[in-house]
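tool_log.txt
---
The assistant was asked to compare two proteins side by side. It first ran the structure predictor on the initial sequence, then on the second. Raw inputs and outputs are pasted verbatim so the downstream comparison step can read them without reformatting.
(1)
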Amino acid sequence: MTITTTRTDDLLALRQSEIPRGISLAHPIVAARAEGVKLWDVEGREYHDWVGGIGVLNVGHNHPAVVAAVHAQLTNFSHTCFQVTAYEPYLRLAQRLNARFPAPGKAKTLFLSTGAEATENAIKIARAFTNRPAVISFTHSFHGRTLMGMTLTGKKAYYAQNFGPFAPDVYHAPFPYEYRGTTVQAALEGLRELFRTTVDASRVAAIILEPVLGEGGFLPAPVEFLKALRQICDEHGIVFIADEIQSGVGRTGDFWAIEASGVQPDLLTFAKSIGGGLPISGVTGRADIMDAPLTGGLGGTYAGNPLACAAGLAVLDLFEDGTLLEHARHVGTRLHDAFTALQGDIGAVGDVRGQGPMIALEFVKDRVSREPDPDLATRVVEEARTRGLLLLKAGMYANVIRVLVPLTVTDDELSEGLEKFTGAVRAAAGG
């Protein structure tokens, strides 16, 4: 008997043979091309991509403006290293991001290559400014896969494994999770208890927080909580870092998620969608804090690569007149309405939450116990894929489906995607 293998089979076999098992694969497909919200695999199958490279493609796959900007820069040069010779795209992108920093006064920007690098450098800068060692992060958080990133991450089982020992002087406080019983008041009391019992506030250089948890399940930090943290940081001379790596660049309907609260950070980390698909990250913050490290203390060989900076400028152009943010809020409203309708019909949809189009569903075995149902979430992902929709799970219990649909999605494309999504949930839940 002749056994026929597809190109996908061959390539996935090559992946298993040549790539370490530690790199996960959410979907057993191999991409061939993509445009906007659509992705096609090597067999020619079409998918609506609601993952977006894990929040990298807020302006969609291969946006023509981004492609044109990168091509134009490539005809000039692709790399010099900014520490060797400066170049205008880096300078102009920094200038424009400084103008967007959500706090008054002079801001400065440092570019890097990955979100984890941005996290690492924000901590370095805060320590240099305060001359203090300790850092506080939160439960359910994710801040990267480097040593400091893993240490800061408040979701240990999946990411930390046996990779320790980890960075010293990093502590975790509770993140508010009302659906699972952690109120704002309880979270703040947990932070105060940490100050009383484990690390004195006078030793803390920085508090780092995602305004909307990413890997942690798209939990928005309540405004009351953010305001209290800002007050605590002011009281104790602590640098407040907003990690906007997944929540930024329009994902929530504001350019930065924290803008909706009116709370002003001291430093802000970004990555993912700022490059429109190219690797770039950075830290923007108060100039006096950003200038704390001495010459030579910051940088990186590929940090702020010219091609990625050119892409970043094109991405900012797309947000310039506000229409894309307005459309993002419209997308968020449609998603929220569709998901709350599902929640009304299907008891396994325990919670619908998010900020703007950064929205998620949490699946439970029943609404009384609220016991997480990660198996159902997995079935939803698999059922959606058969219908031509790519989804991704999240959350401490892997029972959350998060939506990262490109903000450039048209109404017709969104309707088609929602039909696939709701059909997948109903089929997987048996409802």
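(2)
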Amino acid sequence: MSPAARPASLRKISNAFLHVSKPTWWLESRFHFSFADYYNPKNTNFGVLRVLNDDLVKGHAGFGTHSHRDAEIFSYILDGNLMHADSMGNKESLPRGAVQYLSAGSGIRHSEMNDWDETTRFLQIWITPDQRGHKPQYGSRVHAHEDRHNRLLHLLGGTGIPLAWNNVHSVGQPISLHQDVNVYVSENDPNVAQEIALGEGRQAYLVAIEGSLDVNGTSLEQRDAVELVAGSQQMPVTLTSGNIGSHFMLIEMVAA
């Protein structure tokens, strides 16, 4: 059955079922998909979304220099700061609300460190690229709270056409991914409702980063997620923040 011929669907992924990895004293991660010490053949990806890790890195520690290739990797910082350095000569510190993007392509080395006392929390996401061997590249952007306050902020764009939702905000051109993917975040006051619509043959993965929200009648608490698949028709989606507000990420992509 082709992606566009499938019926629309919504599936909740509870935080209680995420794999919690504590491989060392300084790292605690929650894996949405198979990664490192966790392998489930029925949970390896959602379309081109290959990795989504919710990482907590203690102070004065982090991911030392290591190599990647043929992956579109981006991080969204939530608490503390993250110090990035790579083999192309980039080095910078990124605070809450910042996004960084690394197209590993034909090969790159990098480190992601927490050089401060407080714990850093960030989402680490890997997207499968549209082809192998892209030229490595790096990009980042720091966004103010008002850029995502009660509206969808377009963080990263891809090779396809971004959706024309009325409540989407862009600050300049979104960082570009080598894949048909769009990434949005929103940080909302209590009881704020937002209306979006997934197009035919599209799907999305939504993560409740902080607070709580309702997605078409399905309640999500912090770190819960939901898979949305539009199928053969446009799929209306209503996102309503809970009584303490919400902060979420929506990764919209071509259906698998």
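---
observation on (2): The chain has a mean pLDDT of 93. The domain at 3-254 is CATH 2.60.120.10 (Jelly Rolls).
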